[in-house]
Known about the structure:
This protein is of the alpha/beta class. It has one domain (2-306, 389-508): Amidase signature (AS) domain (Amidase signature (AS) enzymes, Alpha-Beta Complex). It has helices at 2-6, 10-19, 24-42, 50-65, 109-116, 159-166, 183-189, 223-233, 251-257, 278-293, 309-324, 345-356, 359-371, 378-398, 424-428, 435-440, 470-488, 497-500, and strands at 45-48, 78-82, 120-125, 172-177, 192-195, 215-220, 264-268, 297-301, 404-408, 443-451, 458-465. The protein has an eleven-stranded mixed β-sheet with strand order 1-3-2-4-6-5-10-11-9-7-8, with helices on both faces. α11 (309-324) crosses α13 (359-371) and α11 crosses α14 (378-398). It is globular. 57% of the residues are buried. Belongs to the amidase family. GatA subfamily.
Amino acid sequence: MTTDIYRADALELGRRIAAGEQSSVEITQAFLDQIDAVEPQVHAFLSVDHHGALEQAAAVDARRAAGEDLPSPLAGVPVAVKDLLCYRNLPTTAGSRILEGWRSPYDATVVRKMLEAGLVILGKTNLDEFACGGSTETSGFGPTRNPWDLDRIPGGSSGGSVAAIAAWEAPLAIGTDTGGSIRQPAAMTGTVGVKPTYGAVSRYGIIAMASSLDQCGPCARTVADAAALHEIIAGYDPADSTSLDVAVPAVLSAARNGDVSGMRIGVVTELGGEGYAPGVEQRFAETLDLLAKAGAEIVEVSCPHFEQAMATYYLIMPSEMSSNLARYDAMRYGLRVGDDARHSAEQVMRATRGQGFGAEVKRRIILGTYALSAGYYDAYYGSAQKMRTLIARDVEAAFQQADVLVSPVAPTTAYRLGEKVDDPLAMYKGDLCTIPSNLAGLAAGSFPCGLDPNDGLPVGFQVMAPVLGDDRVYRVGAALERELRAQWGGPLLAKAPALAGSKLKGDSK
Length: 509
């Protein structure tokens, strides 16, 4: 029965709870048991709220028993939350020692919306420190491991969120995406991850990395589950000055439809070729064939300035990050080193930042501070903003030719832990395909499209849609999911060797 619970889709669990077939407490306990069993191997969570989660589950069961209508199709369903979102019940660390043990006095808007919708928060998931990284190796609390192969990265920075899903520790999770931090780890773990249109989901209460790029989004095992969570967390929030005061696109309806007949799918020529693993390109080409058979028209489009996207991103992102992280000064909250009469405030600040920030965060702060410095601002940050405009114009022109744009999510599959940790540029190249949509504020998603025939690891297919065209992302994702599940005989995660073997002992229940 336990396996039946934690392998079920989130919407199916919600249906069972609403129908009284299973209680939220029973379902929540099953996931807490799975967390206890596999966390020593995976390390997806930084904190787990056993007591609070069961209390929330019991409250949902009480409402149903009293004959009340449940507030959403996901009421009573457990969810994991990236530890970049403020949540009063648990510490919020951003994966950094500088915030170790800090508790927020308020909830992020996304957290509040999930609680109001009746979701049960299991705990906070691991991440690259302040979301700086693509492997979840820069976390101040140790790396997360990929449930497909425990010697490999799960991607990042939302690696804990997707690993929790892939290890059957949670049916849903929340991630954040600044340059691909939902989509790239989703691709590397065979899960679904969507970055909504910039401004479509409130950033209030989410610890900022790069404010013009950050976006929160859903992680799940199925397209419909991701869409259902998307509809709960999206919507206008007056507490966020970048929030869009528009209706939430009907993404769940689109995910249940999955009709791509007559849809023009644009293959971005700049996102492929040299540097892309042969197995990744093979699966991408096969996926295009599947979508064509489903009635889509495949066209080629060019976005020439995408070739400068990574350089543009790595000037804008660290510049905004250096400004945002200036608040961690040891004077107000968080870590404080050398606090005694012998040290000045400047010395305390220097010691705290030196000890509290990891190497990758320091690297980006230094780069961003330099790009914003007098005499260099126009040459670096100013030029990057101009290039960002050109990238947005490329996208606008491409959407005149196609309804959505597609590419691989990442040039390679998951690499081994430690393989690139000392080579930042090699790690940065993992975001080549995902960065453009953040720079242009687009909606984009990653969907499993099979296994690399050379290493047997998951490959992701990226779908990008215009601003507020999030429903198109889900339509294509649903069509792909339907076609591929017919071939696979079920979800891709069922093929994960680490899950099927003895490495993850919790799966043997």
